[in-house]
Design a protein that fits this description.
single chain; alpha+beta; Jelly Rolls; Arc Repressor Mutant, subunit A; 2 domains; six-stranded antiparallel beta sheet; four-stranded antiparallel beta sheet; 10 helices; 10 strands; about 45% helix; transcription regulation; Homeodomain-like_sf; DNA-binding
């Protein structure tokens, strides 16, 4: 699955730079694939900025002439003229988002958010990112009054989200290995949320005892593994409610709830409405 939207038409691979707009989104998109081999390489970069957010899976990226393998929950920012490489490291599930943007105010925004000094940012998985990206894509495609201002605003929200997750993560080089193990367990939730999942199963993936895993997981996400799983299932349920005509029972089963009544009870408790009331609403 892949999709994209273009605010500024692509004339060539060089992209577009703007000196008249404070911040402008040129184009954006995402892809979600089970297995793929892919490489995007630009020796001289582009005229605009590029943000890549790797939500699930591993990739090779180049920063300052050196190749790095990055995992789930990693953002990469390339500035105009910087050499760019994004390469899938092996045939595995991948979910990734990209945005090309420009404007005379970009550097000011990056500086104020504390994300101006490097290319690679370990953020952990940002569940809100997909919603903001989808909202920006919908704005570009619909082109309603003021859409260009709205997508610029959404771009600032995305950069702010990245900054907050990066600063909260507090990663150091020595912490990356254990952090990647935790990310593996979170990726497992995102891939297998429709199946029965136990906390001991997740703690084994992270290489931690159950109590330590729960503590570490909560420090990273703000939730216990059980609560995180429930909320992720509800996130997927809301997508199905909005974009499909499946019955409530079908949706509850597809997102991992074996009991429709329990699903409806949990949904109303956490979302403030019944699943039927949420159908078709803008998320």
């Amino acid at each position: 699955m892949h999709d994209s939207a273009y605010h500024i038409p692509e004339v060539d691979e060089a992209g577009t730079a703007s000196t008249t707009e404070f911040l402008q989104v040129n184009c954006l998109g995402y892809y979600k694939l089970e297995k793929a081999k892919y490489e995007r390489y630009r020796k001289k970069g582009r005229k605009d900025y590029l943000l890549i957010y790797n939500h699930i899976g591993k990739a090779i990226v180049r920063a300052e002439g050196t190749d790095h393998e990055v995992g789930s929950g990693t953002a990469v920012i390339y500035r105009p003229g910087e050499e760019q490489l994004y390469q899938l490291s092996d045939e595995q599930p991948i979910e990734s988002y990209w945005i090309h943007f420009t404007g005379y105010g970009v550097e000011e925004v990056l500086e104020r958010l504390g994300i101006a000094g490097q290319n690679i940012y370990y953020t952990g998985q940002m569940e809100e990112y997909s919603l903001l990206s989808r909202m920006a894509q919908n704005e570009i495609q619909a082109q309603r009054r003021g859409y260009d201002l709205n997508i610029a605003s959404l771009m600032i929200q995305i950069l702010t989200l990245l900054s907050r997750y990066y600063l909260q993560s507090g990663f150091t080089g020595k912490q990356l290995e254990s952090s990647n193990r935790l990310d593996l367990s979170i990726s497992y939730i995102h891939t297998n949320y429709h199946k029965p999942i136990t906390v001991p199963e997740l703690s084994d993936l992270a290489g931690l005892c159950v109590s330590r895993y729960i503590q570490t997981f909560k420090q990273r996400t703000g939730s216990t593994p059980k609560d995180y799983l429930i909320r992720f299932r509800l996130l997927k349920a809301k997508e199905l409610l909005r974009y499909t005509n499946l019955t409530i029972r079908q949706i509850s089963l597809m997102v991992g709830f074996g009991d429709q009544l329990y699903f409806s009870r949990v949904f109303k408790k956490l979302e403030g409405m019944c699943p039927s009331e949420a159908r078709g609403q803008v998320m």
